[in-house]
Amino acid sequence: MKINNCIFLCVLTCFLSTTIQAQNKDYSIATVAFYNLENLFDVENDPTKLDERSPIMEMDSAIRPEVYKKKIKNMAKVIAEIGTDIAKMPPAILGVCEIENDDVLIDLITHPRLLPYNYDYIHHESPDERSIDTGLLYQSSMFKPTNSIAHPVKIYYGEDKTKRNHTRDVLVVSGELKGEEFHFIVNHWPSRGGGQKKSEPGRVEAAKVVKKAIDSIHIKDPYAKIMVMGDFNDGPYNKSIAKVLGAKFNKEEVGLKEIYNPYENIRRKGGGTIAYRGSWDVFDQIFFTNPLLEDDFSEFRYYKSGIFSPPFLQNPKGRWKGYPFRSWSGSNFSGGYSDHFPVFVYLIREVDKQ
Fold first, then answer.
1. Looking at the whole model, is its pTM more than 0.90?
2. What percent of the chain has pLDDT over 70?
3. Are 109 and 137 in contact (CB under 8 A)?
4. I need a surface site. Which of 136, 149, 162, 309 has the fewest CB within 10 A?
């Protein structure tokens, strides 16, 4: 994967340079990304939450502050480097999951590695049983949010509608990315606890919530630019994404108000964002609606997508060499980053040379 990333970046650089020379155009480039931050909890016990289940809260209280500081530093390092080879700056938009609260996001965006980019954030508290939420970070000079809403995902234990399995909400944020209206939908779907088959109905239910949100946007604007991102705990080929959302893998087959998912083609070429017992899969994805596939680059359009997996994000040795270098091993801090690789999409827009 390291070699493929290098080849991709070289090809993209050459393409952009050639296009600029041939058409006397320059390009505005914006990176949209998603990253599972793997249990980013603060060091204080919140009596209203089950945060004592988080790895950092299981550690001796004397060492928590230093571990938390290192965890924030690691997350800031990754975010600061996503997309910089091409866009020359970190993501304009970054969806995140496995965060505890506003405090951890504030600590993250004010870290020295990210402070120069004036990130702001949107976060709604969710009813998740593990006290983990989703959020959206954005460079305030590039994105102006106009609305946000958290849609609940209602899952129940069996047929008993009085016993709810509380999980993360679906976060929908609308606004203007450099003057263009966009809608970003951030997800962290129910895990595969108990096995893929047993847990699948929860992710199907989450997909239905996303589908309803997309349909609501399309009622107002069938040409809306909608980008759906997240840790779906399902691959592009699973029922939740391929059937319920109807995401397609061939750009030529994507009609108006339909969705294109580039991550199945990445998976088929050997890419992965998460590994388990020797098998790779792409649970982290970004997919989007038809207008971003159009050929008129006077507006932002899709160019490329990828998985951000530089060597420092990979386990350096041992049985799991090459796997995502995670932060936690049980309740011990490993010094790593996350058990997921981030994913990203490049959007480009033509700009006349002055």
1. yes
2. 93
3. yes
4. 162
